[in-house]
Write a structure and sequence with these properties.
Helix 12 runs parallel beside helix 13. It contains 16 helices and 35 strands. The longest helix is centred in the C-terminal third of the chain and has 19 residues. It is of the alpha+beta class. The chain starts with a strand and ends in a 7-residue tail after the last helix. A seven-stranded mixed β-sheet has the order 2-3-1-4-5-9-6, sandwiched between helices. The chain has a seven-stranded antiparallel β-sheet with strand order 14-13-18-10-11-17-15, covered by helices on one side.
């Protein structure tokens, strides 16, 4: 069984993971977050900061002989993509709350995701032995802000003292009324005055928990171990076990990638965490993975497994094969990335239900000759998180796409700790796009004269496309007239040239039609087409005209009633379009849409405006035109030459009239 442990930062999820491992003999001593001795936070940066950055897996054997794989996930909102990737491989989850701090903003974000995915979830109220613990009031908050169908199975005695303990609660009429919210038969029985037996209620609770409709709640202390045994028993009773069809094609997903730290030739090589949903995988087997990149393109690779370490509890012999339902560390896949899927596209474990990052920052090495090492290091980090995209920018800098400030700080620290690279990060800025305003056409025709610069003719047309359609390439010429390599050179270079439009941003939602090509044998080469095409694309865009759009996010905020005015005022000051607000269970819900740049200021200011009680959810919104053209950005990787610089170069060469 694969169980994820999730929580707001500092609620105690890593401490709970350590407690479960220690109590069941998986580790010889109890790790400490403060001392930096935890097993799941193994990275130097995780130990230094005391937070989880990457998902990690550890196993123990529960009473009855069942193996439970614990997946410790990040708690900081900047790493929500890492959390959601982990959720795609889980059989169930434990959501940890602090009995002192209560329901926090990230707790609500996590619970909303768990409810949307209908993932079987147990709630564990931690730190009942801490001064200020409040179990009864917290239970009401959980039902009001997280989920109404929460069923407490243990209560707290002597809470707020070192003598605090968890006591079992009976399954009575109150539990029946809670479960009746999702069971018409049970509701009818209660109306008729028939209360089911405790055994029947336990069966109904297990059924609704498996369906993601009800949430058993336990309490205890990860520090003292109080309540941990009851939680493990609840996992076995209410979460359906993992597994799958062992026959047929192997299907699975890679949810984490790390670098091996052993000595010799294996040092630094990739180790992939693979969850298998069906079939089996053996050592030395050749596997084919498929992936979908953040820009929507699909691809894949094949590789042979050179090492297979099946995650197993101490004392268990996992053998040399991974069976359906299990997790293994796989070595030998040099091209593997997080999110790669084993099996047919669309199988379980896709995990791509989150938006790609919309912030970009330029990164430079402080060392004059360190750009090559910086590129290699950033590429290695991008393998661990495919939503961190890296590409070359102008002036020797690298362009990095990410989610927020903490993620940038972690990347900066990992570059220094793991790769020994001291890098400088510029202030993040939104990633804008350009769209054609009208249609434009351009032609570059070769001149069959001595001293001709390029032996190639290219004519193309640019037109606006439907919103969200991306770039559509239309080949409207005879293919047999020229070698296939020439046609491919035109297509690749034309699409590549759209990565930087008239204002320096990528052009999207357009139709690019090539309607004329020409060559002069034997002088023409593919390089002629690759040099001419960017110039023609730019001239067509110049005639069509482009408008810059900024990415927006639709946001939903849940804030205390007395802070609604301040929050709405902040939204208006950030240029947001406020859609409306309404009361909901003692709080107010505010909906708005605002640009991605100011969104970071909203995230930073929300805790102060709402006494730390405000929660925020985002989803991709519609782009809107920029008020004033943003500064031109540096050219991106892949363009052989900046189009504007290219035109200036051509003008300086004084080419014959009519060449462009």
């Amino acid at each position: 069984m694969n169980i994820g442990v999730l929580a707001h930062v500092d609620a105690g999820k890593t401490s709970l993971t350590e407690r479960l491992l220690f109590d069941h003999g998986a580790v010889p001593d109890l790790g400490s977050v403060d001392a930096g001795s935890t097993r799941t936070d193994s990275g130097a940066l995780e130990r230094e900061r005391g937070i989880t950055i990457r998902a990690a897996v550890a196993a123990f054997t529960a009473p009855g002989g069942r193996q439970i794989n614990l997946v410790d996930t990040p708690g900081h909102p900047d790493f929500i993509a890492e959390v959601e990737r982990a959720l795609s491989v889980l059989d169930g989850a434990v959501l940890v709350l602090s009995a002192v701090e209560g329901v926090q903003a990230q707790t609500r974000v996590l619970m909303r995701t768990l409810r949307r995915l209908r993932l079987p979830t147990l709630v564990f109220v931690n730190k009942i032995d801490r001064m200020g613990a409040r179990y009864d009031g917290l239970l009401a908050d959980v039902r009001r802000t997280l989920a109404p169908c929460v069923v407490p199975l243990t209560g707290a005695a002597d809470q707020g003292t070192p003598r605090a303990r968890a006591v079992a609660l009976p399954l009575g009429e109150g539990v029946a009324e809670t479960l009746a919210e999702n069971d018409e038969g049970l509701l009818a029985a209660l109306v008729e005055g028939r209360t089911p037996s405790e055994a029947r209620l336990r069966t109904l609770l297990a059924r609704q928990t498996a369906a993601g409709l009800a949430y058993p709640l336990y309490c205890g202390s990860a520090l003292t171990g109080e309540g941990a045994a009851e939680l493990v028993a609840g996992i076995g009773a209410f979460v359906p076990p993992g597994g799958g069809d062992a026959s047929g094609e192997a299907r699975g997903t890679v949810f984490a990638v790390e670098r091996s730290d052993g000595g010799g030739r294996a040092a630094g090589r990739k180790v992939a965490y693979l969850r298998l949903f069906a079939g089996e995988v053996r050592d030395r087997q050749r596997l084919t993975f498929r992936r979908r990149d953040p820009d929507g393109t699909t691809g894949g690779f094949s590789g042979r497994v050179t090492g297979l370490d099946v995650v197993a509890a101490p004392g268990r012999d996992a053998g040399r094969r991974l069976l359906a339902g299990g997790i293994a560390r796989v070595r030998g896949l040099a091209d593997v990335r997080v999110g790669d899927r084993l099996g047919e596209p669309g199988d379980a474990g896709d995990g791509s239900h989150f938006a790609p990052p919309g912030l970009e920052t330029a990164v430079r090495s402080k060392e004059a000759d360190g750009q090559g090492r910086l590129w290699a290091a950033l590429s290695a980090l991008a393998d661990e998180d495919p939503l961190i995209q890296v590409r070359r920018a102008g002036d020797g800098a690298m362009s990095l796409l990410l989610y927020g400030a903490v993620q940038r700080e972690v990347v900066e620290a990992r570059l220094l700790l793991d790769f020994g690279i001291d890098a400088v990060f510029e202030e993040p800025r939104p990633v804008y796009v350009e769209r054609p305003v009208g249609a434009g056409e351009a032609l570059s025709e070769m001149r069959r004269t001595e001293g001709n610069e390029f032996w190639a003719t290219v004519g193309l047309r640019v037109e606006p496309g439907p919103y969200g359609s991306g770039v559509r390439y239309v080949h409207d010429v005879e293919t047999g007239y020229m070698p296939r390599a020439f046609h491919r050179a035109v297509e690749e270079t034309a699409v590549q040239a759209l990565r930087q439009g008239m204002h320096g941003w990528a052009v999207t939602d357009c139709v690019l039609t090539v309607h004329r090509v020409g060559q002069h044998s034997p002088n023409t080469t593919a390089a002629d087409f690759r040099k001419v095409t960017p110039m023609v694309v730019l001239r067509a865009l110049e005639e069509a005209g482009t408008r810059v759009f900024e990415p927006c996010q639709a946001v939903e905020l849940e804030v205390p009633e007395d802070t609604v005015g301040d929050v709405v005022g902040l939204l208006a000051g950030l240029g947001a379009a406020v859609g409306g607000s309404e009361p909901r269970g003692g709080t107010w819900t505010v909906e708005a849409e605002l640009p991605l740049g100011p969104l970071q200021r909203l995230v930073a200011a929300l805790p102060g405006l709402t006494r730390g009680e405000g929660a925020l959810w985002t989803r991709p919104g519609t782009d809107r035109p920029v008020r004033g053209v943003p500064p031109r950005r540096a050219r991106t990787d892949g363009n052989p030459l900046d189009p504007v610089e290219y035109l200036r170069y051509l003008a300086d060469r004084s080419l014959p009239t009519g060449t462009v």
